[in-house]
């Protein structure tokens, strides 16, 4: 089952966020999740879908934001996949695909004509999964920083 995140999902969703972004501060990730379900977040994320198994346990999530623009997309603004995760034990069975389908439906209902996403350059599994479900690669970036 794929459905919008609810208050009761906050802890499970936060734990999955921690597994996806293990280099981030777990408490901050959990606080963001709690703020979103409480309706007090900064508004960056527009919708979150949760996948649950037959025992109604959350096993994946997808976070979507509507960005002003996204490199390689023609339409502005454009919905962008900000987080996409399926528990390791549940991968390879179509859960990730179903989460993206929910994001596509949400976007189409609101008149959007493209869905954007990105991944770390070394995340080959994610690149292949994106390609398998119909994303085309449109750009590769090198990010720079100069301390001021
Ligand atoms: C990426 C991820 C969400 C995919 O979830 P999933 O439930 O395994 O995906 P699905 O089973 O729906 O697979 C969808 C398609 O992608 C392909 N795919 C998924 N993972 C793949 C991998 N590691 N290597 C190659 N192909 C892969 C599947 O074969 C399937 O294609 P097919 O239907 O043509 O066979 C999941 O692997 C994950 O959480 N990875 C770790 C976190 C991550 O990297 N997230 C993306 C960051 S942008």
Characterise the protein shown here:
- By secondary structure, this protein is α+β, with helices and mostly antiparallel strands.
- Helix content is 32%, strand content 19%.
- The protein has a 4-stranded antiparallel beta sheet, with helices on both faces.
- A hairpin with a 5-residue loop joins β2 and β3.
- The radius of gyration is 15 Å and the shape is globular.
- Coenzyme A binds next to β4, α3 and α4.
Question: Which descriptors would you attach to this protein?
Answer:
binds coenzyme A; alpha+beta; 4-stranded antiparallel sheet; 32% helix; 19% strand; 148 residues; globular
Question: Rg from C-alpha positions?
Answer: 15 Å
For the termini, the CA-CA separation is 48 Å
Low-confidence stretches: none
- Quaternary structure type: single chain
Strand order of the largest sheet: 1-2-3-4
Hetero groups:
coenzyme A
Protein structure class? alpha+beta
Residue share in helix: 25-40%
Q: Strand-residue fraction?
A: 15-25%
- Average pLDDT for all residues: 97
Count of DSSP strands: 4
How many helix segments? Answer: 4
Helix and strand sequence: EHHEEEHH
Which outline best applies? globular
Largest sheet: 4 strands, antiparallel
């Amino acid at each position: 089952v794929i459905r919008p995140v609810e208050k009761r999902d906050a802890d499970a969703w936060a734990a999955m966020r921690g597994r996806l972004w293990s280099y981030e501060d777990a408490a901050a990730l959990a606080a963001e999740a709690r703020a979103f379900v409480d309706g007090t977040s900064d508004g960056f994320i527009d919708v979150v879908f949760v996948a649950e198994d037959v025992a109604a346990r959350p096993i994946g999530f997808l976070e979507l934001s509507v960005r002003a623009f996204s490199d390689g997309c023609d339409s502005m603004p454009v919905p962008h996949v900000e987080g996409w995760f399926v528990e390791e034990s549940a991968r390879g069975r179509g859960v990730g695909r179903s989460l993206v389908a929910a994001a596509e439906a949400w976007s189409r209902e609101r008149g959007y004509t493209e869905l954007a996403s990105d991944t770390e350059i070394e995340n080959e599994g994610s690149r292949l999964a994106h390609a398998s479900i119909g994303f085309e690669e449109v750009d590769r970036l090198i990010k720079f920083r100069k301390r001021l």
